[in-house]
Amino acid sequence: xxxxxxxxxxxxxxxxxxxxxxxxxxxxxxxxxxxxxxxxxxxxxxxxxxxxxxxxxxxxxxxxxxxxxxxxxxxxxxxxxxxxxxxxxxxxxxxxxxxxxxxxxxxxxxxxxxxxxxxxxxxxxxxxxxxxxxxxxxxxxxxxxxxxxxxxxxxxxxx
Length: 159
Fold this sequence. Notes:
3-stranded antiparallel beta sheet; single chain; 5 helices
């Protein structure tokens, strides 16, 4: 069972997971809608208070759902990564993401290079708490070397 959080980067991952025999838990309506097109995906939507801006479910109902589960992997995105902190737009979203990460055996951050060196309102996790960061090849080598000191970094070529 894997957890996928909200965000356009994770929507791309959801597209790649379509057609696989996998169980996915998500608090993202866009991710749910993508995966719902595939009958082979066992899909769980957390429910909760809906944030229209990001398409994410948050609040106590979503939190209770996530707290009751364990995940082999949690895939999370971020709005910013700076000085070892991982940031998102709202405390409510950060709480769900942090809880999912804490319930996962493997913690994976998907973030394109535009997120490096910037922050947002809520710091919800430390980069060194992730097992892996997956990013694009647009970051400079010094930035990648600094990130590599905190977690394993996988660089994917841009198309």
